[in-house]
Write a structure and sequence with these properties.
mainly alpha, single chain
Length: 237
Amino acid sequence: VDRRRSGGEAANNLFAQSLAQYEALDNVYGLATSHNLIANGLFMQGQWRESDDQYRQSLALFTQMGDLYNQVFVNNNLGGSALKQGRLDEALGYYQKAMRQLEQIGGSPFVIGALHMNLGNTRLQLREIDLAMEELRRALESFEQAQARDFLPETYGYLAEASLVQDDLDAAEAHGKRSLELAQELNMPREEGHTLRILGEIALARAQFGDAHRFLTDSYNVLTIAGDDYESAKTQL
């Protein structure tokens, strides 16, 4: 809960306490889970080298146990770490491996949707826009099947980005507004800040400089309060 609210030190301290207690109990499953949670906290603070190391420790333990289900989640997280660091081909490989593992054991529509969303974002960064759109639409279908809304702001934000790359400004704006509406409703400031930046880029493409400045300023303020240095730097740029 602390991580979702702020992504700050309070969450990391709790995860570290959990890790120490599992070490005292010699509980391998608990150790693997704690390493993954610590990595998530570090990831949200932009400490990607450190989070990558924690993810690898977690994956090694889950692999040692033969726990394929949790390997899916850690491979997905390693994909996120690689994506943020610009290792796009590696990110794609991690996400594809996670999807293969999930298909092997059978997964929930919610998890399948999250993987499609992450694959879509990776394809977007690789500028494989048609493939990105296909993955993102499959993500929306899975989330609808699962009746889940957690990742909808992020998914619609990526759809807005992809539409902007295609120079389809009307579609980009529609997706962006939907993303912003959901992010505000669900109290997800990181997604809100990301989408505000995309709306600013759409306004720039339309030469609506006043609107662009307003969107980008709001994006920077929201992301700064949320402690997301990486995304706020992208907005500054």
